[in-house]
Design goal:
single chain; 112 residues; mainly beta; Ubiquitin-like (UB roll); four-stranded mixed β-sheet; two-stranded antiparallel ribbon; 1 helix; globular
Amino acid sequence: MRYNADGLVPCVVQDAAGGEVLMVAYANAEALAATLATGEAHFWSRSRRELWHKGGTSGCVQRVLSARLDCDHDAVLLAVRPAGPACHTGEVSCFRDGAGGGAVVELEPGGA
């Protein structure tokens, strides 16, 4: 595992059933160890500077079915079974338009 200068690795969280990307969060070694030990997603909260059990307060836990490293070993893909919405806005995914997401720019073929 290759962590960044802050000791973190990005985690892409994907719904195992449908393949939708639910969220991106960061984990340190402690969070990854907790994830493997419990089978539920744990991350490192960069704003609160503490370990974060996803759904520990809301009940919207993410049961981890698999964890895979990318080819450079500097990112993790978690396939999960969510027990509710992933986004703090109540949306299923942080990348849905209702969650404030959507395209930042529209890309056109051949455009700069």
